[in-house]
User: What shape does this take?
Amino acid sequence: MIVHQLSVFVENKSGTLLRVLDLFKDAGIQLIATTISDTVEYGIYRIICSEPAKAYDVLREAGISASMSEVFAITLDNHPGRAADAVRALAEEGICISYLYTFLLGGKGIMVFRTDDAERTKEIIRCKQLASLDDAALLALA
Amino acid sequence: MYLNEEMETLTRTEIEALQFERLLRTLRRCMKSPFYQKRFAEHHLSPSDIHSLDDLRKIPFTTKQDLRDNYPFGLAAVPMSEVVRLHSSSGTTGTPTVILHTQKDLDEWANAVARCLYMVGLRRGDVFQNSSGYGMFTGGLGFQYGAERLGMLTVPAAAGNTKRQIKFITDFGTTALHAIPSYASRLHEVMEEMGIDPVRDTKLRTLIIGAEPHSEEQRRKIEKMLGVKAYNSFGMSEMCGPGVAFECQEQNGMHIWEDYYIVEIVDPVTLEPVPEGEVGELVLTTINREAMPLLRYRTRDLTRILPGDCPCGRHHKRLDRMKGRSDDMMILKGVNIFPIQIETVLMQFDELGTEYLITLTNEEANDLMTVEVELKDFSDDYPRLQALTREITRQLKDEILLTPMVKLLPKGTLPKQEGKAVRVKDLRKTLI
Assistant: This one.
């Protein structure tokens, strides 16, 4: 149900992102999904990759500020309205989504998100029988 | 409690009487220096015109430029055969300057430093480690001789090589360390990396800090990190070096030794004395020096005299912590701002580390200030980072009356500072 996501605090400066990617390349770590948002002050680069624990160590050793967090990952059938169904399940219970991103992997739609209440989100995923993924399941699709 | 009870417990009246007597002796000595002979002649002044301590104000100021212009020996007031040591500034910003010492000057310097160290509770039996640079830099030999004079085992560790520094602390049972504040944080960082707990694994209890402006918050942070009492000190090579002024155990202002110096605080622009207790530029006259007396020397350091008596029983005036340099003062949109004001605000936030950088730029006629500060830890929480940025901005605005742009940076982004920290970058273009 839980996937480990790395967050890297990157300075808004040319070359900082490349530094992270080069470190991953050298360590043989494969990216599965990444997202970055643009704000004036700072950027948070969120990464799902093949070996999160190793990736975390690689970044720390290079002196790069990173944190590891647990996010939810569910698969969605490729039909209109599936994302709405999943989000509705959370909204009906009054759960707020902090951030969310989606991507296709092995022909399957994947939705990754974090909420303000991890325990209740777990319950909802169980009750509504949403198809969730863990690190290994996600990597198997890649 | 006092190393030199007679001098340390003088009353105000006694201090002033002693100062006047020593001033007259200093003026007679100055008449042997080519520089002061000429300076007095130009101002139609003679030592016999000085009838009281207040008359000191008849004498023109001495500046760093005077020292440069008369490099190297133009201010010597004794034959060079009596000079046994010289210290020189690096001269990175111009011609170097030179300070000369007779053997008696060196003895008195060591006595002053020993008096300071005794005042903060250090005794024979303590192990004193000095992480100052040695050689021309006066923080090295100055503390070395003073600590030895007191009878402490003194380790001339000198600057740099943090891991070796820590090894000395643990191997030699160092109880007191002299370090600049930014280096104290660095030490702690490396100790953490090495798995050393400063409280459990070392005997370090006293830290002497100084040489770079720091805030009370930063001091408390350092004390907590290293499990020590940290005492602020003030010195400058033109006044020998360390040992000019030092905190007593009250940790509330630095007693300046008035049997060595006459203290004035003046407005850096008008050069008139400021009202008592207000911030201005520190001006010092040496009255216990043979080789190279300096009259009304403009230190460029900004501070004030703390009002009231000190419970420690010493009547020597107390200097507030340095507010920066009169040449560090930033003028933004007509407002005078000192870097220390920014630092004081930043240090109140637990989320922030100790490294920061102030950058000044301008767009058309508009001055902009950017404050970059490193986060201590990073958590993936946008709303919290934004709220933190807003709160820092708000508090800075309250302090400096204009709104800076605040940027939070990942730890380790700003260049590591091993020497005196550079906190301000002024990139403003002149518009004229």
